[in-house]
Amino acid sequence: MKPLLPALLLTVLVVSPALADQLPTPAAQYQARQVLTVNGAVLEATIHHDRGKERRESRVDGLTNLLIIRPDQPKAIVIQPESKMAMEIDAADPEVGVVPTALATLNATREGTETIAGEKVVKYRVQDTFPAGGGFDGHVWASADGIYVRIEGTATDGGEPIDVSMKLTEIKRGPQDAALFTPPPGLRMMTMEPLEGRVPPAFQEEGKK
């Protein structure tokens, strides 16, 4: 049962599932620039994507941050190459941002077609919950092979609603090096509650504001 959905919509989805499409499964290989906004906080990154596996490279507090997400792993990993430190976080954590393989589990309604960042996409209306909990209410623009080019809406994870906006630009399709999605050797793994002063700034609470 999906308590976050209005009763009428829930009835429609259960009784007439054919009325809803499912968002496309990520099946493409590409590189792009990503601008992610979560509750007004903006993070720009270069992403590499390979059929569900994703690597994001950004700068936080003057340091390089790498985020690797793999559908075959329950945890995402945040890496700071300069310090050779890393931390595992739940892939469903709101700080991970948009996870294409999770979005692909949601039901959606087609609202038309557009061209964004050189990609022909379908605009979907989404109002559904994730199998692991939480949900999304908004719009998603995606290519037939699952490039999520734009997302606008509100995510929920049991707490306060989270405003989410994501856009891709400079999309370059093509094979991605498998090594990009594997953490480099020699990393020092940190826990979720590291001692203050022993972790890079981006891993400390003040670095996340």
Fill in the CATH topology.
outer membrane lipoprotein receptor (LolB), chain A
Q: How would you characterize the largest beta sheet? A: 13 strands, mixed
What is the strand content? over 45%
Order of helices and strands: HEEEEEEEHEEEEEE
* CATH hierarchy class name: Mainly Beta
Please give the count of helices: 2
Distance between the termini: 35 Å
Rg calculated over all Cα atoms: 18 Å
Report on this model:
This protein is mainly beta. The chain has a single domain (23-185), classed as outer membrane lipoprotein receptor (LolB), chain A, CATH 2.50.20.30. Helices cover 6% and strands 49% of the residues. It is built from two helices and 13 strands. The protein has a 13-stranded mixed beta sheet, with no helix packed on it. Strand 11 and strand 12 form a beta hairpin. Mean pLDDT is 83; it is low at 1-19 and 194-209.
Properties at a glance:
13 strands; 2 helices; mainly beta; 209 residues; outer membrane lipoprotein receptor (LolB), chain A; 13-stranded mixed β-sheet
Task: Describe the structure concisely for a colleague.
This protein is mainly beta and 209 residues long. The chain contains two helices and 13 strands; from the N terminus they run αβββββββαββββββ.
Describe the secondary structure blueprint for this structure:
Layout lengths: L6 H9 L5 E2 L6 E10 L2 E10 L2 E8 L2 E7 L5 E6 L4 E6 L9 H4 L3 E10 L2 E11 L5 E8 L5 E9 L5 E12 L14 E3 L19
Parallel strand pairs: 7-13
Antiparallel strand pairs: 1-8, 2-3, 2-12, 3-4, 4-5, 5-6, 6-7, 8-9, 9-10, 10-11, 11-12
